[in-house]
């Protein structure tokens, strides 16, 4: 049986929203601005950026990662149908609103969430210890290593903030055996094994998967099953090493 995909979901009930589900800006703001995080700790990594997308009629929330003073990477499905994107951080406090012409989806992105990666061009950021880029990978980085995920999520309905969890990269064949379609899990997909209760959650979409302990960006949150945060089903990420040529071509930045 194939697992149904979920782009955004409510952790308590495993309810899966369709792409572009309307979320009130006040709700998003209350999530993002909350000072209570998992285990009572507020985590806002220097590379993380809150992204609030809007179409003509609705809005939705995702996460991005700073890869350069002028560029942010996120999931392509986050950018679909958007007209504007508002970027926001708590520390340092900043907010920008950008138009669609600053958003670059991967040209091969499709409804099966293949090649689910996008770039956002931003005004020059003043990088500092509080606002900094995440390192990009070398093509030789192996995928069967223990990794740490940094995702912008919250525990529904009590905790709010960010959660850092650790997981192990799976072979794609094992991910398919767990129930995902071969049309979804392709060579540029990176799947990770997830302990029950530690899946990515609503507003995690587009967030970063980091190699541990180097803290190099190796994946962008793409999909999970509709079982919700407690399901313990494998998660799918866009494998950054598969897109380095495209990233360099679009941005002009060099690999670390």
From TrEMBL:
This is Peptidase S1 domain-containing protein. The keyword Transport does not apply. GO terms for biological process: proteolysis. InterPro entries: CLIP_Serine_Protease (IPR051333), Peptidase_S1_PA (IPR009003), Peptidase_S1_PA_chymotrypsin (IPR043504), Peptidase_S1A (IPR001314), Trypsin_dom (IPR001254), TRYPSIN_HIS (IPR018114). Residues 37-252 form the Peptidase S1 domain. The gene is Dana\GF23461. One of its GO terms (molecular function) is serine-type endopeptidase activity. It comes from Drosophila ananassae. Residues 1-20 form the signal peptide. Keywords: Hydrolase, Signal. SUPFAM superfamilies: Trypsin-like serine proteases. Pfam families: Trypsin.
């Amino acid at each position: 049986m194939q697992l149904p995909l979920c782009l955004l979901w409510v952790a308590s009930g495993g309810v899966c929203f369709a792409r572009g589900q309307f979320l009130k800006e006040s709700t998003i703001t209350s999530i993002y601005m909350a000072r209570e995080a998992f285990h009572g700790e507020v985590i806002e990594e220097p590379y993380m950026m809150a992204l609030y997308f809007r179409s003509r009629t609705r809005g939705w929330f995702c996460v991005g990662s700073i890869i350069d003073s002028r560029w942010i990477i996120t999931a392509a499905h986050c950018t679909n149908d958007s007209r504007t994107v508002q970027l926001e951080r708590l520390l340092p406090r900043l907010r920008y609103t950008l138009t669609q012409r600053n958003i670059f989806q991967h040209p091969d992105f499709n409804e099966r969430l293949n090649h689910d990666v996008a770039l956002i061009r931003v005004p020059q950021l003043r990088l500092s210890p509080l606002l900094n880029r995440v390192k990009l990978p070398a093509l030789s980085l192996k995928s069967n290593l223990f990794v740490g995920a940094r995702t912008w999520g919250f525990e529904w309905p009590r905790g709010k903030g960010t959660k850092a969890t650790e997981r192990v990269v799976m072979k794609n064949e094992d991910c398919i055996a767990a129930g995902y379609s071969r049309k979804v899990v392709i060579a540029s997909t990176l799947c990770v094994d997830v302990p029950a209760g530690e899946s990515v959650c609503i507003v995690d979409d587009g967030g970063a998967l980091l190699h541990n302990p180097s803290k190099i960006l190796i994946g962008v949150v793409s999909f999970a099953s509709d079982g919700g945060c407690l399901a313990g089903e494998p998660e799918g990420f866009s494998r950054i090493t598969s897109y380095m040529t495209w990233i360099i071509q679009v941005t002009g930045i060099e690999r670390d």
